[in-house]
Structures are given as structure tokens and as C-alpha cells.
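Hi support team,

I submitted a single chain yesterday and got back a structure, but I'm not sure I'm reading the C-alpha cell output correctly. Could someone confirm the output below corresponds to the sequence I sent? I've pasted both exactly as they appear in my results page.

Thanks,
R.
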Amino acid sequence: MAATVDDALWDEFHRVVNMTSKELRDWLRTDSAAPDSETEPDHAGTPTGREVLDILGKRRSDLTADDARAMQRVVDRVHEQRRDDLEPTPGQAGWRHRLMRLGHDPLKPAG
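Hi R., thanks for writing in. Yes, this is the structure output for that exact sequence:
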């Protein structure tokens, strides 16, 4: 069932998720790759990363209440880790990689 996503959440989600679908998909596959595991491409990455990827592939009118909750969770988690201005910022690799699993690359300008 489609849910109404308010303008503020829609805009902020697309501001903090500054990776394209392709960039995020490629990152999730790379991040999940390990010599002793074979993750199916559609199951690569964290559950939240896959949710973000799914949301990026939808039209706003097709979003569900679960999508809206995931969007808010991503916005909140990125803001917990970043300054409000979201200016490109270098940091430790682990920190960057955690944010990239959410679709936010701290080395890129916010959308």
C-alpha cells in the first residue's frame, strides 16, 4: 500500500543519499565480497543498504509506509554521524564505509 512521504523527508533523504543507485549497488557488492563467501548480487550488502537501493528505484507515489520509515532511519543515522552542513569530509575508512552502506559517501557533496 502506497504511503504519503512528506516533502521534507523526501528532500532530506535525497540530500543525504548522495550515491547513485549504481554506485550504491556496486559498493554493496564490493563491501560484501569475501574470499570465503559467495553472496548473490541481489542479497549483497546490509538490509538497510538494500532498502535504500529499493527506494531509489521507486517513484515517490509507489513508496510504502515501510519505505518512509526506512528513509527516516537513514536520514537520522547519517545526521548522527555527520555535521549538519554535510560538506565533504575525509575520515577513517570504517566510518566512511558504514555511511556508504546507507548510500551516503562523506567524500561527495550532499545532493
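A quick pointer for reading it: The longest helix spans residues 65-81. Let us know if anything else looks off.

Best,
Support desk
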